[in-house]
Structure formats: structure tokens, C-alpha cells
Design goal:
The protein has about 900 residues and is of the alpha/beta class. The protein is built from 35 helices and 20 strands.
């Protein structure tokens, strides 16, 4: 507080306070506020450090006298903007025709048409622009308007518009996806945004990644801008506001948020009892953003200029959003009485205006010149990201049944009278006889019309079509074979966790001429946990400001180092932001024509469980890269317990079609998987596999000796999901079982193999299942082929063919819940039993946890012998002896073998 600071001149201070008192007494509080605001503005312009005021009056940030001249032909732009409005609404309306009824949204775009059109006509740069194209995150529910614009541009035809939300029934290539889905429309959409909250989050990290590419010298992105169009209701999503501090800290003045403040959620007002625009202004101002409010259209300028006593301003400041919505659902007379009528002075200000004139007073987001002024100021502002908060009406221009109504988001059809009113308001030259209620026609003027010529010229000047996405990409060279030798050598007698083995591989890949500079580690504040602190001194941590402090560990070899051209994206304790970073890096091959290889490493529990929606959006955006689930499994992170111990991420990963998941046991397996992944994702695609995938690799923090790669290793089996790592005695005539294990469970299975042979006279073959998920997908593909092609030779699932001639029942085990192994149950010949870590995690030693979950070597032995007894190959009377001998179900009897965590 100012009163806590030493006053070097109390007399001068008192003069200022007396002057303020005089202004309040003689000119009123409004004049005092104005003077204080101007003083604060001047103080900031003179670099006097003052805390920011978090909110301003409920009026436009840019006063009329500071608005720039509008550079285009407003009349022409208004005409074809109306055509776009009409076609967007008609497209959704026609999609409700009998027999179709696929839904759609018409009110969101109706509220935001001017916001988009100012951008498309004057600001959004296409890929052909000399400075590079902008990245535009379009509000998901606004997609009909973008399709309608593309129709006028000639990029889409009427038949495609009629295929809205009908991507199958009309045949390949004859439908349009419901929302911005790049995977479904890969030459058009760039960024999926309809999972609300991910758009703002991903836009921030895209803008940051643009700076990263520039600062590393990979691409000049200095003239590119990220635009994110958002809804005010969407800002309630945690992800929407969660990263705005990052944008301010890193001074991302290449980023503009445009919030369409139509004051409505899907079901009702965003803040019925409050003011969402003021609330958002406070949030963004406090976070350090440049805030521009576009609240009122030009019709209000004269009224505000004559509001010398602040009566109108006071009404604007104190009217809650719920009332503003009610006003727009009524008429001019209602507004006169219930808005202006709250103060006789304000009522007198509009006595010269008719009810119709009052009704036509626009909100700022519908005023083309106000929006243009805001955009121009945003792109010229430096040092801060900008948010433009534009007040609009949901369903604007669609008629009284739509505008500002609580139900407008769910309304998909217009009655005949609505169509006629809408047509007349938009001045669309369609006669009543042609206005079929079920299939009203689209409207498009002649190709050589002034409107379309002007529209095309605007896009030519800005660099071409937007949005658009390239379909051809650069190809990376492949890393030298020698880079993978480190994974083939093994570790001898030294115990090494698979996480550390993979880090050693990454260290080698950094040295590679073909891909070294393309690797981007993404770490959510756990580098030391994963052994990646060794990257700090050489690769350095990216910071746009460099490092202006002396690190506390600066004298150490592995000192913490930040740099403007650092390679590592160190995101702090922030999995959601890390996933957004992964998405930006993993789609750089398309966005920037610069293939980059993200390697996002995290606690496996906080990947698909915590940020699964982000990975779905990454899949939609066709991200490529590595998602590394470290400290994987339910029992390897033994001290953490419950929420930290992951027993199900492989199941969650299996639900994402873009994810290729592996659960490797050994370093040499990881080496082959990584090498193949780089070929698949970053090669020329000549092998016919889908390149737009993400590799999820589980890695463990439990050290055990890593074997050298065996001579003649089954590389195909490693990549397809299963290979034999420890065969039992051949043709011994003894009972035999097949032990299928993955990841850290393979050593338990090999120990069980020894116990079965030495203690019970049973042979076992041990298989490393590198991917339960890929085995299942292969089997499902075979089943589908056989089902759809009954006359052809049947395909055999890979896992079936591998195990077809193997004797004995199968026991499948992993450090995950049984449902992971059960994915392949129906395609495994013979008797199948699984062991898994179902339930919540606990804190204890690894052997105790494995005994508790019944997955350790003795439990595998018991399960194998039980299966053999069910087939008459082992005396069931001996099973109690097995249980007693190994204390199979008693964790208190387990002794920890510190070298490998096995039970004795």
C-alpha cells in the first residue's frame, strides 16, 4: 500500500489529495475517475511501474477518435458476408431434411460472422504470403460459416455442402465433417478445436513453438501470427485459462485470442448474475495480456459522448448479462423502458430516437469497423499477447426466434417465416416460390460479380486460401545404424532400467546428422527422475529470455542451463501444456514444412489418464512423435502408491486409433521399435503404412540386467508384438506351458520358468509381448477381412500363427491390469489365463506389491501348474503345497531381492 512507503514530501502529497477532493466535490466522481485513469495511463507511458487496474468500464477499449480508417469496401464486404450467413444457415437447415437429420449448429457462426470476415478479408495470411501463413484456430461450432465462405470462393460446391455430416452415406469424398477435423478433411482443416478448452491451450503452445523454431534458427516465423477464436462459455474450461500466464511470460505478441462474448453457454447465460466480459478482462489483465474490449457498435458513440454525467455508463457497468440477454429477446420499447429507463437522465438521452432505432443499436462484435480497429491494434501491439473480447448476440440476424434465446444452440431448423425474415434481412435475391421450406436454395452470385472478384482479390493479397493444409511434406533422412548399437550391446551385469536405456539411445540420436537437430525433448519437470538431466549442459532448456541468473548448481557437470536456442521444452509441472507442446511439435511437418521429432516423457499415469483428450486432438491433427510413459506399471513406482501407479494406460492407449503402443522389456527391443517408428513416421511412406501416428512407449524405472541382442533376433516379432526370448527344453516329454509377459514382467516370467523346471518338472517357453495392443489390432483386422470376404482364403492373426504349434496352456502376465492381456484372449490357441495388477496402487516394496497383486514368479508358477492340472497334466493335490512352499498369497513373507525385486 502507498501508505506503507516513506513519504519524502508530505506537503506535496497533501496537495494532490486536496486536488482530488476538490474534483470530487465540484465535478463529481466520474470526472475524478477520468482524471485518475489518465494519470495512470501517462504514468505507464513514462515507464513508471504501477500495478495494473484489472478491469475498466463496460465500454470499448478503443475510443472513436482513435479508430483507424477502414481500408476496404465495407458495402461489398457486407454483401457477401450476408451471402455467407445465408449459406451457412441453409446448409445446416438442409441437413435436417427428412431421412437425414444429422444435426448442426447455426447460431454460433451467426454471432461471429463479422469477427471471422474482418480476419479473412484483412488479416489472416495464407501459406503463400511472403512471411508465411498464419495459424487460425476456428471455433468448432462455427464450421458452417467457414464451409459457406469456401463455397463462395469455389473451394467447395453445393453437393459437398449438402454432404454436411454425411461422410459415409454419400460415398467417399462427398461429405463434410461436422467440425474442424484435419484427419477427416486433411487438405482443408488444420486445427481441431471442438473439444472445448483445447483450442486456447493448443494455440498458446503453437505460438510458443513458432518462437522456438525461430530462436533455434530452424525457420523464420517472425511474421506469422496465431489466431484463436473462442467462446465466452468455453473459457470456463480449466484448459482455456490455465496457460495464459505462459503466453504473457514469454511475451507472445504473435498470439491473438478473439473471444466471442455472446453471453451464452449451451443451455443458458454464461454469467446471468455477473458480467463475463469484465471477468475475463480481469483474468487476462492480471495475467499480463493486452486486453481490447469491443462492447458497443458505432451507434452508441454519440450517446456515450453526450453522457457527461455518467448515467448511461453507470447503467452499462451495473446491468448483469442475464438482463442484456432478456433485452435482446424483446424489442426496442422494452429496451427503452428497462435499460435506459433505469435513470431519467439516460432516458432523456434517447427521447429523440424511435423504438426501432434503439433496437438497431448494435453490439460491438457485429460492427465491422470496431472489429477492424481491434484487430489492427492487436497486430501492432508488441511485448504482450492480445485478447479481443467482442460482445455479440448468439443467433444474430436469424430472427426473433433465435436471437439471444437460451435454446438457440440446439436450434437447427428455420420455419418458413424465419427463412423469409432472414432472407429479407440479408437481402438475398431468392423469391418466395423458390424458398422451399425443407430445401431452401443456396445463393451464389456470378463468378465475375463484383463481390466475388473482390473476395478473391483480398485472399490473393493475403497469400491464398485459409484455412488450408498441405498434403505433401518433407522427408527426413534416417539415422545411421551405428546410433542403435548402444541398445544392442546390453548392460552386462549392471542393472539398467528401460528408461535409462532409452535415454542413452536419445543421447546417440542427438549426434546424428540426419535427425539430431530435429529431436525435441518435452519434459514436465521430471528430467532428473528420468535421468535426462544429462541433457541440460549440451542441449540446454529453451527460454526466450535466456538465463539471467547464476544457477545454484552452476559448478556441477549437470548444471541447469537455459538458453534462447535451447532444445529442451521444460514445461514445469504441467502435463496438459506438455501435451499441447507435443501437438505443436508433432505437427510441424505440416504447419511449417519442418519435420520435428517430439519426445514427450512423463509419469505414465499422467498421460492417457490425465490428458487423453489432448492426445485425441493430437491424433485428429495428425501429430507424429514419441509419447514416453516412464515410471510405467503398477508396481515399479513402488513408493508412490494409488494415483501414481499406472496399471491401465495401455488400455486407454488402445482406444486411440492414432496411437501405436509398445510395452518393451529390453533395450534392444526399444531400439528396433524406435528405429522402425522413425522410418514409418518420417520416411517417404513407401511401405504403405499410415504415417500419421504417435508411438506410445512404456518404460520402467526398475533396473535389471539388460541382455545383449541375441543372434538372429526375431525383429519382425518385436515389431508385430511378440517374440520368443527364452525357449524351454525342446522335446523333453515333460508338461509344457507358454508364458507370455510384457515389460518389467518378463524377468518374473523367466524366473518362473526356472522354478517350474527345477521344482516341478515342467518346461516353459517365455515370450516377450512387446505390444498386446498391436496384436489385438492385427487380429481384429484379420477377423474383419474374413467376415467381409467369405470366399477368400482366411487370414490368420499373427499371435495365432506364432502360438499355433506350441504345446500347453498360456499364462499371460504384465504389470498392468488383466484386461490388457485379455485383449488377445480369443485368438490364443488353447487354455488362456491372465495375471494382472487390478485394483488401486499401494506403497511398499516391489516384491510385496507383486505378491499382493499376484503377478510375481511364484504366482506365475501356481497359475501355470493350476492350468496344467485342469488339463490332467499335473496333480491338483499338489497345488496347496505350491502355495505353502512359496507363501503365494502372503506379502508379509516376501523378502526383497534388491538387485531385481524378485521374491524368495
Amino acid at each position: 500500500m502507498a501508505t506503507q512507503i516513506y513519504d519524502s514530501d508530505p506537503d506535496e502529497t497533501q496537495e494532490w489529495l486536496d486536488s482530488l477532493d476538490a474534483v470530487v466535490d465540484n465535478a463529481g466522481p466520474l470526472r475524478a475517475r477520468h482524471l485518475l485513469s489518465r494519470v495512470i495511463e501517462r504514468a505507464r507511458s513514462r515507464a513508471v511501474g504501477l500495478p495494473a487496474l484489472r478491469s475498466t468500464d463496460y465500454i470499448n477499449t478503443i475510443p472513436p477518435e482513435e479508430e483507424p480508417e477502414f481500408p476496404g469496401d465495407e458495402s461489398l464486404e457486407r454483401r457477401y458476408r450476408r451471402y455467407i450467413r445465408w449459406n451457412a444457415a441453409v446448409m445446416v437447415h438442409r441437413a435436417q431434411r427428412p431421412g437425414i437429420g444429422v444435426g448442426g449448429h447455426i447460431s454460433t457462426y451467426a454471432s461471429s460472422a463479422a469477427l471471422y470476415e474482418v480476419g479473412f478479408n484483412h488479416f489472416f495470411r495464407g501459406r503463400g504470403h511472403p512471411g508465411g501463413g498464419d495459424q487460425i484456430y476456428i471455433q468448432g461450432h462455427g464450421s458452417p460459416g467457414v464451409y459457406a465462405r469456401a463455397y463462395l470462393e469455389g473451394r467447395l460446391d453445393e453437393d459437398l455442402l449438402d454432404g454436411f455430416r454425411q461422410e459415409l452415406s454419400r460415398g467417399p469424398g462427398n461429405g463434410l465433417p461436422s467440425y474442424p477435423h484435419p484427419r477427416l478433411m486433411p487438405d482443408f482443416w488444420e486445427y481441431p478445436t471442438v473439444s472445448m478448452g483445447l483450442g486456447p491451450l493448443n494455440a498458446i503452445y503453437q505460438a510458443r513453438f513458432n518462437r522456438y523454431l525461430h530462436n533455434r534458427g530452424i525457420k523464420d516465423t517472425s511474421d506469422q501470427r496465431v489466431w484463436a477464436f473462442l467462446g465466452d462459455g468455453e473459457m470456463d474450461e480449466v484448459e482455456s485459462l490455465g496457460a495464459i500466464g505462459l503466453a504473457a511470460r514469454e511475451e507472445l505478441d504473435n498470439l491473438t485470442f478473439v473471444i466471442n462474448a455472446n453471453l451464452q453457454r449451451l443451455d443458458g447465460p454464461v454469467r446471468g448474475n455477473g458480467k463475463i466480459i469484465q471477468e475475463l478482462e480481469s483474468f487476462f489483465t492480471g495475467a499480463g495480456w493486452n486486453v481490447i474490449k469491443v462492447v458497443w457498435g458505432r451507434g452508441w458513440d454519440d450517446l456515450l459522448a453526450r453522457d457527461t454525467e455518467g448515467a448511461l455508463l453507470d447503467i452499462m457497468n451495473t446491468t448483469p448479462d442475464g438482463d442484456f440477454q432478456t433485452y435482446k429477446a424483446n424489442n426496442g420499447a422494452f429496451v427503452r423502458e428497462h435499460f435506459f429507463g433505469r435513470d431519467p437522465r439516460a432516458l432523456k438521452m434517447v427521447e429523440h430516437m424511435s423504438d426501432d432505432e434503439i433496437w438497431k443499436l448494435q453490439r460491438g462484435g457485429h460492427d465491422y469497423r470496431k472489429v477492424y480497429a481491434a484487430y489492427k491494434r492487436a497486430v501492432e501491439h508488441t511485448g504482450q499477447p492480445t485478447v479481443i473480447i467482442a460482445k455479440t448476440i448468439k443467433g444474430w440476424t436469424l430472427g426473433p426466434h433465435f436471437e439471444g434465446r437460451n435454446a438457440t444452440h440446439q436450434m437447427k431448423k428455420l420455419a418458413l417465416q424465419d427463412l423469409q425474415t432472414f432472407r429479407d434481412r440479408m437481402e438475398i435475391p431468392i423469391s418466395d416460390k423458390d424458398l422451399d421450406e425443407k430445401l431452401p436454395p443456396y445463393y451464389k452470385p456470378a463468378q465475375d460479380s463484383d463481390e466475388l472478384e473482390y473476395m478473391r482479390e483480398r485472399r490473393r493479397e493475403l497469400g491464398g486460401d485459409a484455412p488450408s493444409r498441405p498434403t505433401e511434406y518433407p522427408v527426413l533422412g534416417q539415422p545411421a545404424e551405428e546410433r542403435f548399437e548402444v541398445m544392442k550391446r546390453g548392460s552386462g551385469k549392471q542393472p539398467v532400467a528401460t528408461t535409462m536405456a532409452f535415454v542413452r539411445l536419445v543421447r546417440e540420436l542427438f549426434k546424428d546428422e540426419a535427425i539430431g537437430k530435429r529431436i525435441v525433448p518435452i519434459i514436465p519437470d521430471e528430467a532428473r527422475t528420468f535421468g535426462m538431466d544429462s541433457f541440460f549442459p549440451n542441449q540446454k532448456i529453451y527460454s526466450p529470455h535466456g538465463q539471467h541468473y547464476t544457477s545454484v548448481d552452476s559448478e556441477l557437470i549437470l548444471a541447469y542451463k537455459e538458453s534462447t536456442d535451447g532444445v529442451i521444452l521444460h514445461e514445469g509441472i504441467n502435463e496438459a501444456g506438455s501435451t499441447a507442446s507435443f501437438t505443436a511439435v508433432g505437427t510441424s511437418y505440416a504447419t511449417h514444412g519442418e519435420p520435428m521429432i517430439p519426445m514427450y516423457i512423463f509419469y505414465s499415469m499422467f498421460g492417457f489418464q490425465r490428458t487423453g483428450d489432448g492426445f485425441w486432438a493430437a491424433g485428429d491433427q495428425m501429430a507424429r512423435g514419441f509419447v514416453l510413459g516412464a515410471t510405467a506399471g503398477r508396481t515399479t513406482l513402488n513408493g508412490e502408491g494409488l494415483q501414481h501407479q499406472d496399471g491401465h494406460s495401455l488400455l486407454l492407449a488402445s482406444t486411440n486409433p492414432a496411437v501405436v503402443a509398445y510395452d518393451a522389456a529390453y533395450g534392444y527391443e526399444l531400439g528396433h521399435i524406435t528405429k522402425d517408428a522413425i522410418v514409418r513416421m518420417y520416411g517417404d511412406g513407401s511401405d504403405g503404412r499410415d504415417q500419421n501416428v504417435m508411438y506410445y512407449l512404456t518404460m520402467y524405472n526398475e533396473p535389471y540386467p539388460q541382455p545383449a541382442e541375441p543372434e538372429g533376433v526375431d525383429v519382425e516379432g518385436i515389431l508385430r508384438g511378440i517374440h520368443l526370448v527364452s525357449p524351454g527344453q525342446p522335446d523333453s516329454g515333460r508338461p509344457r506351458v507358454q508364458l507370455l509377459a510384457s515389460g518389467v514382467a518378463v524377468p518374473w516370467a523367466i524366473e518362473a520358468q526356472r522354478m517350474l523346471g527345477e521344482d516341478w518338472g515342467v518346461d516353459a517357453d517365455v515370450w516377450s509381448v512387446t505390444s498386446w495392443n498391436e496384436l489385438r489390432r492385427d487380429a481384429l483386422d484379420a477377423d474383419k477381412h474374413n467376415f467381409m470376404n467369405p470366399g477368400e482364403q482366411a487370414k490368420v492373426p499373427y499371435v495365432t500363427s506364432v502360438l499355433a504349434d506350441r504345446q500347453g496352456p498360456v499364462v499371460a502376465v504384465s504389470d498392468y491390469m488383466r484386461a490388457v492381456q485379455d485383449q488377445i484372449r480369443q485368438w490364443v490357441p488353447g487354455r488362456f489365463n491372465s495375471l494382472g495388477t487390478d485394483g488401486f496402487g499401494l506403497s511398499d516394496t516391489r516384491p510385496a506389491l507383486r505378491r499382493h497383486f499376484a503377478v510375481d514368479a511364484p504366482t506365475i508358477v501356481l497359475r501355470a501348474l493350476t492350468s496344467l492340472s485342469e488339463e490332467g497334466q499335473f496333480d491338483a493335490a499338489k497345488l496347496p503345497e505350491v502355495i505353502e512352499r512359496y507363501h503365494v498369497f502372503d506379502p508379509t513373507e516376501v523378502e526383497a531381492d534388491l538387485s531385481g525385486g524378485q521374491a524368495t
